[in-house]
Amino acid sequence: MAVHGEPLTAGVAPADADVLCVFIHGRTQTPEDMIEQVVGRLAVPRVSFCLPRATGNSWYAARATDALTDATRRELSASLDYLHGLAGALRQAGGADKPLLIGGFSQGACLSLEYAMTFGPWKGAMVNLTGCRVGQTQDERSAHDLDGMPVYLTGSDQDPWIPVSAFAEASEALGRARARLRCELFPGRAHQASDMEVKALEAMLRDLAEGSQPFRRVAA
């Protein structure tokens, strides 16, 4: 699993974009699934999307909540390096001054969270739709200071992959990392991106495109 595939691109060209976005699919999924389930439901102009593609449709073989093994660490490291290369190439093509949102669904959300803890923060934000940290609390894991970077983390009490305990542990870890954090747990929500979650992602992209930091708007 050291080599992953060619990403799918959508939206405008990076040079013409107001905001850049890397959005990562989950286990058994594809970038095309993310277009259908998330990206295609967004109504934000002038966004350049890069959707990574995992070899074998998985970023690592273990469940996110399993204890880290040497094999999982190797797979995770390879996936993070691949993601780092894509994010760097997107910023080089679009301009380092443009905001970048990195996010994902399910296993992709977990991978983006580990990316932030390893390479963050960056100018922009992160979205983790049904995500948690990879590994268990006793495992040695990176934990960068996110220095107020906006992060949106979601979960469900009915999710078969990410239990509430893992969602809560991730929110605590992000809090310790000093993320500007918004968490939402959706009771009864199936393993999918709900309309409310997609709208929250849309609002974050729109804020970034307009030069505002997500979660800083004050209601009138």
How do you describe this structure in short?
The chain has 220 residues and is α/β, with parallel strands linked by helices. It is built from five helices and seven strands.
Describe the overall structure.
With 220 residues, the protein is of the alpha/beta class. The protein has a single domain, classed as Rossmann fold, CATH 3.40.50. Helices cover 33% and strands 20% of the residues. 43% of the residues are buried.
Radius of gyration computed on alpha carbons: 16 Å
Question: What is the H level of CATH, i.e. the homologous superfamily?
Answer: Alpha/Beta hydrolase fold, catalytic domain
Number of domains: 1
Structural class: alpha/beta
What is the third-level CATH name, the topology? Rossmann fold
Number of strands: 7
Round the mean pLDDT to the nearest integer and report it: 95
- Top-tier CATH class: Alpha Beta
Shape: globular
Major pleated sheet? 7 strands, mixed
Q: How widely separated are the two ends?
A: 50 Å
